[in-house]
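User: Hi! I'm a student and our assignment asks us to look at how structure tokens line up with a sequence. Could you show me two examples?

Assistant: Happy to help. In each example below, the sequence comes first and the structure tokens follow. Example one:
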Amino acid sequence: MAAAMIDAAPVGLFALDAAGSVLVWNATAAELTGLAAERVLGRNGFGAQRATDAVVDTDVAASVMAQLSAGRRVEGRFPAAVPSGRVLWFRAVPRTGPGPAVVGVLRDLSESRVGDEAFALLDALWETAPVGLAYFDTELRYRRVNKAVATIDGGTADDRIGRTLEEAHGETGARITALLREVLADGRPRLRTRMTGRLWHGRGPEKSWTIDAYPVRDEGGAVMGVGLVVIDVTDADRTREELADVAAQRQRLLTRYQSLVEATSAAVWIRAADGSAVEDSPSMRAITGQRREEYLGWGFLDAVHPADRPSKRAAWLDAVATGHRFSHTARLRGAHGGYRWHRARAVAVRDETGAVVEWVGTESDIDASVRARQRLDVLARATLAVNGADDPEGGLTALAETVVPEYADLCRVYLVEPVTAGGAVLTGVRSVSRTAPGFAPPPPAVDRFVFGAAHPVSRAVRDRTAVLDSATTSREEWAGTAEMWDWGRAAGLHSCLAAPVVSGGLVVAAVMFLACGDRPAYTDDDRALVVELAARVSAAVEVTRRVQRTREVSLALQNAMLTEPPRPAEIGIAGLEVQARYLPAAAELQIGGDWYDAFRLPGGDLALAVGDVSGHDLTAAATMGQLRSMLRALAYDTEREPSDVVARLDRVASRLGVTGFTTLVYGRVLWTGDHAVFRWSSAGHPPPLLVAPGGDVRVLDVPVDVVIGVDAGMPRHDHELALPPGSTLLLYTDGLYERRDDPDDAATDALLRLAGAASELPLDRFCDAVVRGSTADTGDDVVVLAVRAGPPDQQGTDQQGTDQQGTDQQGTDHQGTGRQLTDQQVTADRQAAQASSRSA
């Protein structure tokens, strides 16, 4: 029954014989360490004579057994890198009589509080220190004292625990309490305070001592108590050398004590003033698995990841040179392989002259928090990347480029074919592949793939969930891409994640991440991240597919509504040339609410129109299409004055509810006598420009009438202007020149200068220069419609020739003179022009 109770105990229990061999090793001890009882019992205890027989650090084990043999209790970090990877704490006590010579317990250090861990680390130091050490809580009650305190003050350590200084020492204790309250109040240490009095209830001898009191802080920086260092200086016969030695030793122990109390990791190390390791650190070697001779000197840096080693060496040498506090985060190789993130911290120990005599530091395992931050960073950057893609495959490519190499050594995206009910394999085509630097290129697999039912990608697609796999899938499951399995084995593949990408309720793709070599294996937390990544990619694919469908509709609508202007030979007025440009604000849709139109009227005149419907979406585009069609029908059917055509359009559009606000300039170019004339009417639209061949620009700034859709009963007016030979008439929308901040109307002057500078260019290059050189910054639609009158010898009417040419060209394709520009084509030119304008 006793054996059963020991084996069922919720803590690790062990017992040793006088030689140090293990007699008892219960189930909890086996679970905590990962060492089965049959491996430990009898031959693998603290008394092992050969390093190959022991599961513990033999140097430390010898020290532990010596203390136990002397009748002292021993506790501390378990001196072994156990297969479970846990950081363990042990406590062992000697016993007399028959049976085991030593009994002890094991526990997981991570389950204890930070304060308890720090105290446990300090036990060995406290018990051997030649000065008195004590710790008080915020109520100034004894929490921990060493044996030296009792030697100095009298009584025992157990007599003090839980009591206040007044209860233990009377009036002298009250004076010490006042000092400690000051430390609690402002959080600053009180050093080298000299006191004289009688301790231990006032019954002790008159003594003198020095006290160092300083705050002890928790991980968040809050004061959780006060530490005390007491040195007895009663003996007046001490020589000067002895006092100096004691002072130096006190200062060293004080700094070491402060450093260890602040530590949150069980790995503590001491290094020489030059930064090298001259003292052994079993706790550090338990992490890295190094032997003592491998660790000493500068060998401790060999356990740092090669990519982090240069920065850690540089930071450590800088601290050694300056004496500043040291803090650095790097990956350390574990005793059982792989790397984990650790934060190193160290402080310098100085002598009375301020010179550094050694360094005291700690290593804290922060792998979980670092990897959590990395996962969040990958998620944020991947979300931004896939949302910025223009098409589904672009989103998948953006995902692969984001996760490699920060999160994966290889990422592949597969476009999958529908899975049949009960299907055993998954088929499709490979879409995207990205590999981290330093790895051999993966095999150029054929575009098509076949995965067996047990392959991670097949399972992810079939079950519509992320799959975490330890890369144990057989070569056969890779089917038609088995060479990829071979590549993974050569690269040290040890972990795989796969997730489906869903669009329209169907799995359209799958992503696969591979971890190789010394990259940490993926965990369930990584699987949760991949679920989020796949969800974001799925959403991005949905959006881009909708945008693609909308774009297709938009392009079809745009092509139907913005026809090419007529060629010179198709115009009824000889020598007349027309060019148009259109740049939509909604670049992803390639369409907006602005429009132009130019067509020949039955009587031979050339009709011109430029309009601006409020809005930059499909609704605005549809409204534009209706107004354009109605205007063309009314103009073609009546051939009345422009003002009458605009008035009729306003009445029809208002009654049908087509628009609520549209600006428009509509006019006709006609031949009167011996020159061309432009006759127009404006419904709230920006005024046309007349550009002379020499560069003079005139604004046709005439009174404008009300916009379309506001008040159809308002009167409308016509205006007329002769077009000199070689002059250029420019109609446009406000997106060509408006700026967000332009109180002095500098944008209009900039447009006039731009048009004047381009006056001698051919008409097509004139239009390009005006659009690309614009300094507008509102992001509005841009329409430009330009008409150039020919030289005198080309002017006149050409009705018959034009009719014949139009008849000859019926049913044939021709290259038009209107052109739609993209924002990519004009961005660079606009930025340069805006910079030039700002400089001017």
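Example two works the same way, sequence first and then tokens:
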Amino acid sequence: MGSYVLGLQQIDREQVAIVGGKGAHLGELARIDGVRVPPGFCVTTEAFERIIENAPELAGPLERLAKLNPDDRDAISEGSAEVRQALEAIVIPDDLAAEITDALVAGRAYAVRSSATAEDLPGASFAGQQDTYLNVLGAEAVLRHISRCWASLFTERAVTYRLRNGFDHRKVHMAVVVQQMVFPQAAGVLFTADPVTSNRKTAVVEASFGLGEALVSGLVNADNYQVRDGAIVDKAISAKQRAILAVEGGGTEEQAIDADQQEQAALTDDQVLRLVELGRTIEARFGGPQDIEWCLADGEFQIVQSRPITTLFPIPEAVDEKNHVYLSVGHQQMMTDAMKPLGLSVWQLTTPRPMAEAGGRLFADATALLSVPKSRTSFLAVVGKSDPLMGDALETVLSREGFIQMADDDGPGEQIPGAAPATIETDPAVVTELIQHSEASIATLQREIAAKSGSELLDFIFEDIEEMRRILFDPRSHQVFTAAMQASWWLNDHLQEWLGEKNVADTLTQSVPHNITSEMGLALLDVADVLRTRPEVIAFLQDVEDNGFLAELPELAGGEEARAAIQGYLDKYGMRCVGEIDITRPRWSEQPVALVPMLLSNIKNFEPGAGQRRFEQGRREALDKAQEVLERLRALPDGEAKAEETERMIERVRTFTGYREYPKYGMVSRYFVYKEALLGEAERLVRAGVLDEPEDLFFLRLQEFRDLVRTHEADRELIQQRKEAFRTYESLTPPRVLTSDGEAVSGSYRRDDLPEGALGGLPVSAGTIEGRARVILDLAEADLEPGDILVTAYTDPSWSPLFVAITGLVTEVGGQMTHGAVIAREYGLPAVVGVQNATRLIKDGQRIRVNGTDGYVEVLDASLGEMSD
């Protein structure tokens, strides 16, 4: 065979650039002992490139296609159709046509399948985006369908996918696989890991009669088998009313299956087990779980495709072969996005407990806590109270007999944060001392780091991280917010028992002192007050798009004062940003333009002095509620004692609750000091030719960067690999609970007290509110009006300035003491968190009711769709 045609036996998985993803995988499959692959060949990408190069009429349409917005469906439809028609009209040159037809076996039917160079790769599955043609007869028909495969690179779906995922149309080329047709009795798909639960030890087989296209296209309900440890653990035989079969003369058609055959199994149990064994062999060859298309003909399995399952969340590496249970750190920290390597390493250096990595996220191994009866009980109680979905998921794992081996009952167990009673006295001076110590330490850091560079700088940062840990994990600090949590739980439990009122602590903790995060939202209202009397400044800010606007403000009337107000805000809060636990994320001080929409919204929606009034209103409501509760208690039997104890708890919760948000503020303040110094060092390395750009730093662990500073030797290939891996990780959704089998375990609320159609969640801030839902996934796109209810995946401190404008909160992630819950209570906003799929089930603009007392959300107007701007 010539340069444009390669037999499958000549191909391996390293030749993606020549034969595309599908062709490379088929070639590799053909090399595995015991795996049968239908004979055939690949028309290489060189043939496609030759066609494109000799078609100057395609240059313009391809250029226009590359510039389209992935949401502009009409333009994509028109542009992609133009390219497809042009490609199909091109006549294949005689020498290329001859090379292809010489590889055909006379009288045989063929399957002609597209194989793109960006298809079936570990990080990007383009499955089904290009075309497959079955039972193609004759050389002329094969050539015609090869042209159609080339054109299928430009279907609307494929073009949109590439635009969304950053693939250049002009750099993705098409090969074509041509294989002899198999006419199977049965066909289907084998997943070597469960695509629903992600369990790597469970294989799933789907089977139907005839060609597999009936299953892939959704024409039939397939038989379904689940296989684990060499045994079928579950199976469901479906009524298969139709099949797709080859037609004499070429092509395929749907045919009805005889009624007496419809409920027969397409495979025997032995065949299912044999197929899974074959799948494990293929999985071992490719080094990861596979999605395999198979055919059964004459009692033998033939494999017609294998691609990686790209939707599975990676498994953390374990130090042993035992079973492990991992908890998502991101769900506890309200940051479930992927983190870059520098961010992961700095967070790991910060935390006291070792953390495993997977998919750009961190996970805590809870196996040891769950293995000892004493710690298991208290751990499940604490987790279940703060995040019921995580708690229920853990219960699901523990219900599987033998997955976690229990240690002896007399084991000491591990101390669970929040489980032991806080013994600290209710003394406001403790909080002020902790804050003053942190602020003084940060001031010392800022002063001393300025003189450091090179290896001395990196050594200094590692030393200061230990200082940060001493402050973060000061036993008094933990006692303070543990005392706040326990006092809140005490108030809710006892006042519900004594007065029949739920979640009273939510009102009692409004406008407490020292809550740095809620103060941040109110402080932005104060900045808006400075700007609102300066019309030139407001007009200027309406059109601001870049981060240099602060330098331009002094040129405007009132601009000096406006700049001073914004800069003052940044001096105190500029280290904050979305996803702030990742040191690599851009901070407000680096991107101050992020504050502009929130400032303009505050000017538009609030009157002067709103910040102070808001705080005072919350404080008054809390004090009035305290007075009311104490009066009602005194009227009860033994009321004086109950009131006295309750008053002590109210004082305790109001003294300590505000501090809950401070340790993270201190931590991210240090992170920003580190980041500025590290970027300065990275810029010096760029000037020295060691790094290509300063941000390459973000794809090295802190320990690796220290070595790089010392040696001036950068592994550019490693940095590039990590950039590509990060892009893959960004598309993954981390589970709350993950096992060492790879199973992503979802919890549920298991409640029967919800109104019909309501979405259940965790009540974290009492009250009921109705309003317009604003479904916002990107803080930069927030456009809120007073009375709106914010619906989002999660919030962190950077979202706090929005809380002043809303009347309620719904999030998909969160617990009793996570950011959104704390600030919602501080501002008196009804809030429900942990509402699964809230951003998909609630449409932007719908009217909803949020019950933050009982923990559910109702959609009141199901007819409204997404809002138009």
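Here is something you could point out in your write-up. The CA atoms of residues 370 and 376 lie 5 Å apart.
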